[in-house]
Amino acid sequence: MRFRCVRCGKCCRELEVVIVLSDVERWAKAGMWSLLAHVVRRRAKGWLASLGIEYYFALKRRYGVCPFYSDGLCRIYDVRPSVCRLFPFAYSERGLAVHPWARRNCPGLGVGDQLSAKEEEELRALARSIVRELIALPYYSTFLDELIADVKRGVSSRSKR
Asked: Which helix (DSSP H) or strand (DSSP E) does residue 110 occupy?
């Protein structure tokens, strides 16, 4: 597989960004609790519903665009969500596949150097981790709901540590 991001921003402008617990943990470690103010709960459909998931968390889009995409760049690149780290790849029963939307729309596919075996394995592990976290969502969703509500009310999330 070959991929190099060409920074076209199509994915940031057209796709919804799913959030999992490891994303929130990454934001917490960086002291970026305020990012939770951009997270909303959504009813699952499509492949998420087929996994038995009733709902999930996602970034609330601003005018149809990721709230952190600005002037052609990701403003939270160092702490970007797991699905963004994985893209243009996605989970498959084999562990890793090209995201169906990316297959039709991503100009970076087939560009750049071949992914190394190590890079492919890291992406497979990330894909598996995202799915495990989505399946485990019922066990931590109340916690996320409370964190999000606290951030939106302006309550310091430091007390949640």
From this structure: strand 109-114
Count of CA atoms in the C-beta half-sphere (13 A) of 72: 4
pLDDT digits over 108-156, tens only? 999 989 999 999 999 999 999 999 999 999 999 999 999 999 999 986 5
Do 75 and 68 touch, CB atoms closer than 8 A?
yes
Question: pTM of whole model > 0.85?
Answer: yes
How many CA within 13 A on the CB side of residue 46? Answer: 3
Domain edges within the chain: 2-152
- Cβ distance 79 to 27 under 8 Å? yes
* Structure confidence by residue, pLDDT tens digits, 75-108: 999 999 999 999 999 988 777 899 999 999 999 9
Report which of 72, 70, 71, 56 is spatially closest to residue 23, judged by C-alpha positions.
Answer: 56
Q: Which of 10, 33, 6 lies closest to 158 in space, CA to CA?
A: 33
